[in-house]
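It is worth pausing here to work through a concrete case rather than discussing structure prediction in the abstract. The textbook approach is simple: state the sequence, then state the predicted structure, then interpret. We follow exactly that order.
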Amino acid sequence: MFAAFPLLFGATPQGASAIPRVTDLNVYYNNQKTTKVPIFKQGIDYLERKGVDDRMLTFLPRLMQTMGEYASMFSKTEAPDATVKQLVKDAKKFRKAVEVKDKEAALAAFEVYRNDIPPGAGQFDLKKPSTYEAPPP
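Step two, the predicted structure:
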């Protein structure tokens, strides 16, 4: 009797695991850039100014989550491809460098991550806000 309720409310058999299809990748990339890259900027700016301290270690899980989410959008298929796997490896190297409190290695690892992003709308430069911020209205 209650098994029909999800269908009555518009649920599909796939449920929340269904991956939305994106028709305009540039719009999608720009949307992701404007929401995720400022988090990178916040973490990397702090790392450059203060180095690795307790506050950076507290911020690290959020930064790692965001790096993983940003990396996942570059897959050409629904499954992670070589590009995504490389970006995830780069992010893990960044995490390890931060965990051992090696500021220079962490900054270098983040640059490797940033440079491994495929050419196009997904690229950004933290030194140039125009590459990741929305244009003024």
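Step three, interpretation. DSSP finds five helices and no strands in the chain. Helices lie at 5-8, 25-50, 54-72, 82-99, 103-115.
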